[in-house]
Prior knowledge:
By secondary structure, this protein is α+β, with helices and mostly antiparallel strands. It is about 40% helix and about 20% strand.
Amino acid sequence: MGRRKYDEGCAVAHSLDLIGERWALLIVRELLLGPKRFTDLRAGVPGASADVLTQRLRELMEAGVVQQTKLPPPAGSKVYELTTWGAELEPVVTHLGRWGSRSPSMNHDADRSVDSLVLSLRALFDSRAAHGFTATIALRLGENTFRVEVADAEIHLARGEAERPTATLFTDPSTLATLIYGDRPLDDVVRSGEATITGKTAAVTRLLRLVRLPEPANARPACAQMR
């Protein structure tokens, strides 16, 4: 069966023609922090079979959203990455994440990919409370390493090492999730040995205070709220 398309002269409908298939936008999510091999993408979207993932990647490449490149030696692996145009979807994914986090039916205890967890730092970041705070936090989540930079009331995320970080947080994804979504105190996880911090602990504490779940949405119809 061929792909179903809207084929409308509406840019929203056309955007959905390009990235609206199941798993497509989650593949974009997994590539926002940098290139990934096919096996890494499978780990990030485990619900998609290898055949479906291959098909979606092919469609996204045909649409100009994703491209395949080869890492330089000694790795030499083939990886997938977002094109410059594809990377412009970052604010779309971020706003969807924040919008969805306000859903009364959102299950914050469900499984999520490591990249999704790290990207939630941006979706839930309170820029108004970040004025005057500048820091670079290195996140070591098992085999995954990320850098989080906060400056000028903005947060920037990337996969990879951080040079001379203000602090480094060593933990696992599930523990970080409890700090973000479960409002668990940082001191608690450090005391229990579930996390270790080098550098300035206060910087990690401040970062976590800037990342908070918004109030759940009011599910009443808009017309009822205007009365």
